[in-house]
Amino acid sequence: MVTIRDVARASGVHVSTVSRTFSAPHLVNEKTRQAVLAVAAQLGYRPNRAARALTTGRTHNLGLIVADIANPFFPPLIKAAQGHARERDYHVFVADTDEDPVLEQELIETLSKQVDGVLLCSPRLSNQTIHRLRAEVPLVIVNRRVKGLTTVLMDVGQGARAAIDHLVGLGHRRIALLTGPPGSWTSGEIRQAATDRAAEAGVPLTVVGPNEPTEQGGLAAADKIAGHSAVLCYNDLVALGLIEGLVERGLSVPGDVSVIGIDDSLPGRLNRPKLTTITMPTAAAGRMAVDLLLAAVGAGEHAPHTTVRLETSLVIRESTQRASEP
């Protein structure tokens, strides 16, 4: 069996350097790290993760908990986080809460015994519960601001303002907003930003919700936006469901109603009409969250908290056009 000493001897470095290459790669010079990894691959060396965990107290596993793995918003984030963690010699366990805060808490408590830290994406738990769980395991929150904890935010408010500006610029004066589920931080951010920007433009905004964050949620809301010429939706799934509901009622998009989603997911790009939407930097958020979580794991209970805000942008496609009303 090839040992760590064999790799060190063949690489011309100390055993501790080989150990750090696999346990704390960010502490090793990039050129040295790549040379050690090349030698290890050539010799067929594989670190014993169980033995390393006993020595270092680290599992080199991370948890990643999302609200709904079937939502196309999450897979790019999951993929980016897993790849980024793998480059740092970490594995990621992914779990889905199905929008259920009780299950979310159970998953965090279970994973806390098996991982070094947890990425919590769009959580539905109360801030008080999240702070209590933070005492059990390092946490980084994605897409929700929690005071006193490290968070990665995608600036959905910026996107909502851009969406309202776009619709007003097209001459729409009867605009509706389909919000998301109750307790959603993102939904609250969208509502506040869209309401403020519409007020600045002197255009009334009708808020319709809460709604399920799914196609069914949009479909069910189709009757509630009668009389409006444009709708901003909580996410792409709601927007696609709304478009289906409008078509079933004999209305065309964007001929009768302009529709904007949020996420820039693949279904929206494949839909006809192609969906105008707000692109969210999900992959960048996944990578940033991993880096912040590993920093927190390394710093222990004294880890400082920070908030990173990533920009969003409007992508104009086929589901919006100039308003027909004067």
Descriptive report:
- α9 links the parallel β6 and β7 (205-208).
- It contains 13 helices and 12 strands.
- It is an alpha/beta fold and 326 residues long.
- It has 3 domains: 4-56, Orthogonal Bundle (434 Repressor (Amino-terminal Domain)); 61-154 and 282-311, Response regulator (Rossmann fold); 156-280, 3-Layer(aba) Sandwich (Rossmann fold), CATH 3.40.50.2300.
Keywords summarizing the entry:
326 residues, alpha/beta, 434 Repressor (Amino-terminal Domain), Rossmann fold, six-stranded mixed sheet, elongated, repressor, Lambda_DNA-bd_dom_sf, transcription cis-regulatory region binding, Peripla_BP_I
Fourth CATH level, the homologous superfamily of the largest domain: Response regulator
Number of helices: 13
Task: Assess the beta-strand content as a share of residues.
Answer: 15-25%
Estimate percent helicity. 40-55%
The major pleated sheet works out as: 6 strands, parallel
Low-confidence stretches: none
The CATH C-level class name of the largest domain = Alpha Beta
Number of strands: 12
Q: pLDDT average, as an integer?
A: 91
Decide which structural class fits the backbone: alpha/beta
Main-sheet strand order equals 2-1-3-4-5-11
What sort of overall outline do the alpha carbons produce when their principal axes are compared? elongated
The radius of gyration over CA amounts to 23 Å
**Structural domains: how many:** 3
CATH architecture descriptor name of the largest domain: 3-Layer(aba) Sandwich
What is the chain-wise order of helices and strands? HHHHEHEHEHEEHEHEHEHEHEHEE
CATH T-level topology of the largest domain: Rossmann fold
What is the rounded distance between the termini? Answer: 80 Å
InterPro entries: HTH_LacI, LacI/GalR-like_sensor, Lambda_DNA-bd_dom_sf, Peripla_BP_I
Protein name: LacI family transcriptional regulator
GO molecular function: DNA-binding transcription factor activity; transcription cis-regulatory region binding
Keywords: DNA-binding, Repressor, Transcription, Transcription regulation
